[in-house]
């Protein structure tokens, strides 16, 4: 498979499913549809390891609001953003400035910045610095948790596990997010030799939900070792496998290499 398939979650992600102790209870009348979607997911993740989700159930206005809020944050002065800088020795939460983290051991410098939202100890810009950053991000986080729980259920179904809630039960941290941006390169910027935008890497978690704008730039390494573009598709979410899922499935769902542009 040298393309990224589109999975339609209509009737699955956009439907309210009963929850008991954090586990999803699917009506028998819906199981056929869920197993059908799970089979498509199995083919995608066992192949290229990426998939687009349409009819995913997350409100488009909340995604748009998050894009606007994150753009506004990254436009703040470096002095303001530095007040919320991530210190890995203390927390996994906070702003990561360009060059602070390298995704590949051969990277010299990476022109990207992000804001990690993770753990119980969180700190956000004050209202006078950014009017609605926390409110917008928490709304999207809650929507993402709901979708992720359904995807974890679908993973169990896709592997026809005896306990189809296995992945939900094993996932202790469904509360971590990363805002990520690759800023434009100024024409007068003196670029250090060896600088890349976002180096090739695999993600470390189970699954990544990637909300794309219309700019694009992400590339995925297919099964033949060829880099192909993950061209944004309107109103979809791009999903990819991570190292933890590869470990849990003994490589059946491999973590796929990807990069931000020609790195």
Automatic annotation (TrEMBL):
Q: Does the keyword Repressor apply?
A: no
Gene Ontology MF terms: metal ion binding; oxidoreductase activity
Q: Which residues form a coiled coil?
A: none
Alphabetized, the UniProt keywords read: Iron, Metal-binding, Oxidoreductase
Q: Which domain of life is it from?
A: Eukaryota
Location of the Fe2OG dioxygenase domain: 150-263
Q: Tell me any Pfam family this protein matches.
A: DIOX_N
- InterPro entries documented for this protein: DIOX_N, IPNS-like_FE2OG_OXY, IPNS-like_sf, Iron_ascorbate_oxido_reductase, Oxoglu/Fe-dep_dioxygenase_dom
UniProt similarity note: Belongs to the iron/ascorbate-dependent oxidoreductase family.
Q: What is this protein called?
A: Fe2OG dioxygenase domain-containing protein
Q: Which organism is it from?
A: Orchesella cincta
